[in-house]
Amino acid sequence: MKKTVISIMGFLAVALVIGPLQAAESLSVDEIVNKANLAAYYAGNDGRAEVSMTITDAQGRTRTREFVILRRDVANGGEQKFYVYFKKPSDVRKMVFMVHKHIDRDDDRWLYLPALDLVKRIAASDNRTSFVGSNFFYEDVSGRSVDEDVHELAEVTDTSYVLKNTPKDPGSVEFSSYTVHIDKKTFLPVKAEYLDKQGRKYRQVEALEIKEIQGIPTVIKSRVKDLIAGGETVSEFSKIKYDIGLKDNIFTERYLRRPPREVRR
Amino acid sequence: MLKPCCLLQTFFIFLVIVVFSEATGTASALQDRLYDDYGVGLNGFIELRQGWRLQDDPYEKDASISEARLQLDMSKDLDWGLLKLKGDIAGDEVEEEVRGDLREFYLTFSPLEIMDAKMGRQVITWGTGDLLFINDLFPKDWRSFFIGRDDEYLKAPSDALRMSLFFDFANLDLVYGPVFNGSDYVEGSRLSYWNGLLGRTAGRDFIFHDHERNSFFTDDEFALRVSKNISGIEMALYGYHGFWKTPEGVDPAAQKLIYPKLNAFGASVRSPVFGGIGNLEIGYYDSRDDRHGDDPLIRNSEFRFLAGFEREVAQDFTGGFQYYLEWMSDYGAYRRTLGGMPAKDEYRHVLTLRLTRLLMNQNLKLSFFTYYSPSDQDAYLRPKVHYKITDHWAVEAGGNIFLGEDDYTFFGQFQDNTNVYMGLRWSF
């Protein structure tokens, strides 16, 4: 069970969930949260996408990151495994970042450095740390547990549910609360706005483009903006495929040292 | 071999390449062409690195490093396997030469569903230590490490066949080197060191050469690892049959160092714990040419132990700590037969601290790594600042600071080599 924010993994968005609209009107908050979580993070049983991130800092300088991402769900709404294979820039080329996402404990993370043939284990205590220097957080990649926040339905518009989410442990995060707009049809989170401890809106995550992939509504372009410090990151997803039959053993040390065919081409 | 100005010459050539490429996009056009037409991936970097000693060293030059380096990294996906070639060309002002260095040249493929094989020149790493090695008995380049080359160069390549087998009960790695792959030890050419034979510090006045172990299939080595990951807890057993990787013996008649025979056995565990990553590793080094410890010219057997913990202290700020022990076997026999040479302690304790801070969208990295030995009363500090100017350009500056009470301890012997360095790299 998990997540509400729009994420890098938005491409996983799933439709399996979409019920008749009239039924949706009477959904409970928990049902909306769970459907959004599945839509945003659990599309298909597995998936592959190529990601291009453009990071623009407050001074307008840009940097790019390109990587291939593989995902496999161990259980729908539950444990997942991610494999991220970097292609650009060249100083991180062929590095691999792997995550085993758990529900009841900290995630396991590994980084493989090919020049040293080193499999490094990474402490995963803080999920709200920048992912590869972008404005996306680790938590945006693998999802924030739905159990970590109290959810309230703030508003229902013609097109979306607006949820207000307040952290149960405010000391563990940098925000005081955030609101998420969830599309009524697809249950995809399309916009999230974060308030800092002073109550200022300081961070915004948006789905810029949504497309059906194999019948599954999928975020193919998203943006995070830092509204106070300045700077933003745009992620574009291409060559998205679901249900490609990824084997579980891809997400092991064997394939850290020898990247699988699914990411090399 | 070129003349002393090789650094400037090489650098000038590299500079022309970089400027030309940046201006015309030649490098990326060439990369695309190679990939599209031949399926060959080409990457690499050009780098200039300069470092100086912070004090006079009567045995060495003032410059600790002074080189221009080009690395080319090519790979070809054969569909059934992968062919990889990576090599460096460096113009080195300190050693007054231009040299080529083949870092990787291997073929990797999967002969069986449950098996991967890698043949050729390759870098191999296993074990759990952070810049401390017990069961990783693959070659290191200590000279590169101490003069401030990129961390990549600490690991020297092995010419070997690596076979990895993946079973349900465990994974098995077997590495066979038909001829010994030794570490690049400090022999005096660019770093001064304690010379036990002379009983004093030496450097370019006494390059301590070795008797190379270079007979194929006689001087061969064999390493093995059995590993298993049980719900996030990584466990491994290790074995090694070969030779000390640094020359831990002396042939006084020839005034050369030798690589005595060595077997090693060990185990490790690594797991998330207390919100971070903890690791334990043990090993026993069986010095087969001095099993009773009574040959003063060959290092005794020893027991090694390592415990470490690393975690995020704050956002983008990581701290790590390790305790490491070398416990000499047959210490009585060692002391009895030592003669007049300065004696090592029975227990060598080492503590390490690593602090890493990322700033400015993780483009600026401040890192600090320290070894401190309370028993040897010496220390080695490695501060470093690395800044990614763009996706292609990076600069870094750092230091290698050696401190010690005595001239003959592990880090203390390098005191006169304390140096700072700067590097500029263009990656493509």
Strand order of the largest sheet of chain A: 6-5-4-3-2-1-13-12-11-10-9-8-7
Task: Please estimate the helix content of chain B.
Answer: 10-25%
Terminal residue distance of chain B = 27 Å
Overall strand count of chain A: 13
Would you give the CATH topology of chain B?
Porin
Q: Can you count the beta strands of chain B?
A: 22
Shape descriptor of chain A reads globular
What is the CATH class of chain A? Mainly Beta
Give the ordered list of helices and strands of chain A: HHEEEEEEHEEEEEEEHH
In CATH's first tier, which class of chain B applies? Mainly Beta
Largest sheet of chain A: 13 strands, antiparallel
- Biggest pleated-sheet summary of chain B: 18 strands, antiparallel, barrel
> Terminal Cα separation of chain A, in Å?
33 Å
State which percent range the strand residues of chain B make up: over 45%
As residue ranges, the low-confidence spans of chain A are: 1-24
Which band does the percent of strand residues of chain A land in?
Answer: 35-45%
Helicity level of chain A: 10-25%
Number of spatially distinct domains of chain B: 1
- The whole-angstrom Rg of chain A is 18 Å
Report low-confidence residues of chain B grouped into runs of 5 or more: none
